[in-house]
Amino acid sequence: MSPTETHSTSSAEQETLPAGKLPPALLTELIALLPTQHQQLLLGPAVGEDAAVIAWENKSEKLLVAKSDPITFATDEIGYYAVNVCANDLAVTGATPRFYLPTLLLPADASTPSTVTAIFQQIADSCRALDITIAGGHSEITPSVRQPIVAGTMIGEVSRSHIVTSSGARPGDLILMSGVAPIEGISIIAREMRPQLLAMGWATPELDEAAQYLYTPGISVMEQALLAAQTGVVSAMHDPTEGGVATGLHELATAAQVGMEVWLDQISVPPLARRLCATFGLDPLGTIASGALLATVPEDYAQTVLSVWEAQGQPASVIGRVVDQSQAVTALDGGKRLPLPHFPADEITKLWS
Known about the structure:
Helix content: 25-40%
Distance between the termini: 44 Å
Largest sheet: 7 strands, mixed
Order of helices and strands: HEHEEEHEHEEEEHHHHEHEHEHEEE
CATH architecture of the largest domain: Alpha-Beta Complex
Structural class: alpha+beta
Strand order of the largest sheet: 10-12-9-13-11-14-15
CATH superfamily of the largest domain: PurM-like C-terminal domain
Number of helices: 11
Number of strands: 15
């Protein structure tokens, strides 16, 4: 019988877990769910171990890339979010994700073995799908949080000749976008606000469709980013997350010290996404947007990248042009030129304000 089956059938084990570290026996069972075997992993996750030891090969040719990110907006499928968001951030540098170290902070008086097992299983399944190995991490039950938090560190590698940075955009480059927006935000709205939406008269099939945006079209842009990097023509890439596509564009411009002219009518926002955002007064351009990918490419090579994405079955479009920094970051909307909006906080936070 699997650990999951054991926890689900024993009522005694459904008592809430005390604050502090997970019980060693339970943690041992949970670690057994994870992919931990890799020839370069010399010391992996185990009860009592505080760090991972990784033998990195080809130091002269390969660069190690690491990223840490917490998931704080979502509770449903939080393990899936955590893995894919970190993987996206590595992939936009051209790096292939290899290892992941998740930190789980779990609320006291609300965590059971089965709820913790579900999160571990989400992390395990997501890592296996992306061929990522769990190298370590930490788990703790604490009164300091009111809902589960996953903050993870992911490590990857990239050849020196294929590194891509956000600072590489140059005036004259075209701005490309793969995917639609805001995928992650719409899934969060449909999952976290479902009772309220049903009470408002939203149809169950529509909410089911929006909730499935998490997987279809999905929040992962790892494959799109790695394919774009492999063309060798991308000057910059960025994964728009908190603050949405608008914030992602501002961050690209800031990193490269350039201006941008953004064509709003070319940014793909599905009608269902617009309606859900409007229900709560959210601007789709400022709503968390994992699942979209931004890239800048010299104009002569833009079609090369677009063709790669389209061959993968991804929506892809040119959404603007990089200009000189003196021209700032502006948006063309119905023939009018306006400043591209700034969002000090992600629009999704309005759901809980």
